[in-house]
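Side project, low priority. Logging it here so it doesn't get lost.
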Amino acid sequence: MSALLYEVKDGIAWIRFNKPEILNAFDADECRHFVKTLKEAAEDKAVKAIILSSVGPAFSAGDDLKAALEEYPQIQSGEIHPILDIVEDITENLQEIPRIIRRAPKVVIAAVRGYAVGAGFEISIDSDMIVAAKDAVFGFPESNAGMTITGGATKLLPMIVGLNKARELMLTGEFIDADEAYRIGLVNKLVPVGEEEKEAERLARVVMSRAPMAVIHHKRMVTQSTEADFETALNLEKQTIATLVYSEDYGEAVQAFSEKRKPKFKGR
């Protein structure tokens, strides 16, 4: 049985964690496979949106602690090098996930049910949007496991929920339920259990119906503006508008508005 399921259906790439017996925890090889699959979906021009989901009662419990327990004696004996085999391998792969998502010229949505903790939480907040079922649980257990978080979470989480709440979640290691996640702005949509994929697909298709170049540039601007000073962000907005005003999609949108019809965008 594959630990990861991948299919493309009607323009949407579905990537599902598939180890429900261990709450979709994953080891180093499976993390590499996820990164490879995510990159494939991001680069596939036939794919217009990506939805990250899961099989079973949990999104992902993150790192497989059983594998970590097996590795620890090997680290102590020197068989596994803590820098080359863990930091440069596992951590680098987890950090590649937000790089791929931020560069992807399409929306990436996490459809979360049950536990999304540790690396599972990181992957959720790496996504452009999160749809959560009412039974979703988010948290970082790392502070209680002698480890720290990665996957860009130390940058992204404070931007999403604010510095104080991010500190609380990281330092205490306490989990929050779906209602609290929605209240603090971590989650975009909150739905009944079993409806998370349907709502994620609905959101994806709304984005897919918009002008492709506008979607790509909005995503790029948000990413770059959060890392720039205010004047740089304003200049980026102006440069982007100057580019899009010459696009066929902009002309089509104006024409469609005047003719009272839906625009037919071509992505150019």
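Brief comment: The chain has two domains: 4-208, 212-258.
Revisit when time allows.
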